[in-house]
Each structure stands twice: as structure tokens, then as C-alpha cells.
């Protein structure tokens, strides 16, 4: 066996001095693990395993992180400067944009979430559910209980402590546009909206994004970047400016999402550490 280096990735070349050894199934001795089962890939796409040229070639690709960092930092700092120096105008603008986005795309968001639930069920119980999100023969790094614990903690976070009881009450007191009726009907609508945000629908969104990342990174050997999840649609354009745009949007969404979650906690901690006057025990009567 000898190796040649005509490209970025080493290419395994059979040694022609001795010729391939005969086996019972006709497989060449130069093909390791030829008898091992291979996880099926999506229709029309071959399976990828450790040592395959496609895996090695994919592992050498690196996104242009410099431009992504510069643009992301510039946009975040610009937003922070605008909110610090013009707080009233920023609050009014963000409130207006939030109202318009919800009123315009609320139906699309709900429909998309339902579609993701159906998609996850098809993937989980269909032929694609047998695909290993890793190299052939790899064992899981974490046990199933540990994995569920990490997913639950990262998926819920601090928000569940506050919004668990506060969100249904908020939807009950301030129903979304178009929701009217008796208190019982408003309570049902409030719980329905809360389940949409915290129930299986939310986990379907996490699962869809996680599956795309896991398949690209652990199965195809791509770098840790969201751009590679869109490679089937964008092709080689993910290596250029289109890929940079995808990563910049991802960074902005992550930064603002984490900042929102952490921003709630300082506001809640002082209130949670005090006892309302109406709940304090009364002194014993004499």
C-alpha cells in the first residue's frame, strides 16, 4: 500500500506489485471494513465513512472566519451604540418592527413550525432515521440520560423559570389580535400559545437545526459552521460571500438570543429574592 499526495487530501492507491488478495465475497483486501455494514445515506447520496476521500476532503475546508467576525462585530457594536445613545427611538423602532413582523408573518411562522414537526417525525421513523450522525463504527460520546439532560438544559435555559408561569398569564391578560371570548376561552387560547413556544413544536425547531449541523459536521466532516447545512442548495457558493452572510446572520441571532435570556435574569433575581408583603407570615396574636 502506498500513498500519493496530488491534492490537499491524501489519496490511497493500491499497491500493484502484489495485486489484490482474493476473498470469499470478492472484495479487495485493500478496502478495509469492506464487510462492515454501511449506514444508508439520503436517496441519491452515497454513505460517508471514516477514511473515505469525501470525508478527508471535507475536513480540510475552512470558512472565512475573519470577514464573518469583522462584520458581526461591527453590526453588534452599531446596534449597541444606537440603543445606548438613542434609547427612546430604538425602543419605538424595535416595538414597531416586532408588531409588524408578528402581524405579517405570524401565520407563516405557525405553518413552518407545524411543517417541522411533520418533518422530524418522518425523519425519525423513516429510513433516514437509521443514518448514524458520525463516522462508521463510532460510539456515542455521552449516554442517553446525559444527552437528554444537556439538550433539555440548553433548550429551556433560564427562560423556563420565568416564562413557564408568566407566559400563559401574559397571553391571558393580553390576548393576541383576533382572540376574543369568555375567560375560559381566553385561558385555553393562552395555553395553546404557550405550548407552541415550549412544547414539541419548539423542540422540532431545535431538532431540525441540530440534525442539519450534526450531519454536515459529524457525518460529512465539515467545519463547525451553519453555512455547510445549506451546501445542498447553495453548492460551492457556501465557500464565498453567501456563506459569510449565513454565518453573520447566525452569529447575530445567537448573540441577541443569549443576551435576551441573560438580560431577563438580573431583572428577576432581586424580585425573586424578596417576599411580597401579602405572603409574609403574620406575627402571632397575643
Automatic annotation (TrEMBL):
GO terms for cellular component: plasma membrane. It is a multi-pass membrane protein. InterPro entries: BCCT_transptr. The chain crosses the membrane at residues 68-86, 106-125, 146-166, 201-218. The keyword Nucleotide-binding does not apply. It comes from the Bacteria. Keywords: Cell membrane, Membrane, Transmembrane, Transmembrane helix, Transport. The keyword Transmembrane applies. One of its GO terms (molecular function) is transmembrane transporter activity. Residues 1-51, 267-286 are annotated as: Disordered. It is found in: Cell membrane. Belongs to the BCCT transporter (TC 2.A.15) family. This is BCCT, betaine/carnitine/choline family transporter.
